[in-house]
Amino acid sequence: MEPPIEIDFSDVDGWTVVEIRGEVDVYTVPSIKQHMIERLADGLRRFVIDLRGVSFIDSMGLGVLVGALKRVQSVRGELKLVITDPHTKQLFALTGLRHVFPIYDSVYQARRTS
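Request: output the structure for the sequence above.
Response:
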């Protein structure tokens, strides 16, 4: 049985805010990937992925975020992350991904910063 994950999205001032709650791992990556593919197919191009509700993220989870970033960049879009958990921030620092993704402390800050 797959661990539960919740993925919600909303439009806020021209940005698609994707809120993920639960564990981002090998079991939930397919749901996240499919969600992002569907939003891009809908023509959306500016994303803020809110990871404040994520309790765990593994290498597969990092991989799906990198894949999402590549897909968004391939259509000249933007993708930003919201991360407040110190352990998750440390993971992005240790892997060097903090230099790949724009990371913010709030959805408001991510939307307002170019």
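The chain has one domain: 24-112.
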